[in-house]
Design brief:
Layout: E1 10-14, H1 15-19, E2 30-33, H2 42-45, E3 48-49, H3 57-72, H4 77-88, H5 90-100, H6 102-116, E4 121-125, H7 135-149
Helix pairs in contact: 3-4, 5-6, 5-7, 6-7
Amino acid sequence: MARGTESGSLADTYVAALQHDRADLPPETTLVGVVRKPAPWFHAAVDENRPALGPPADLLEAAKAAEEEFKMQGLCEEGAHDAAWDRVDFADAYRDHIETDPKARAALADLEARIESGESLALVCYENTDKKRCHRTILRERLEERIEAE
């Protein structure tokens, strides 16, 4: 994968999967939270947290407001979530954040270097399903793209 060295693995999961032993990860995987404002109990579920890789507050607020509006219109939770993502262009806005915010860029570069050096990482956030769109998946995909480009 990267420059003739053995790279570590990269995965993403959600905190409830860890808490209920539903995450299929190698035992040596470092659990990296990517939550901007973690609840106190979140720290017990992960090895570290990188708040700079959480979505910006204004983007989260816009998505939550749109999701509530869609729920009021009768959409189910998952449908409202996905419709809200489309309305606020969440994926592109989040990609822009991780590529332009200095703290996010530094955190992204650090995780990339750790994977390239052989460390296995799992990105963790609150979103409690694999069905909904989630920033941690966008982040995983971006890290994979960066590593493959080397």
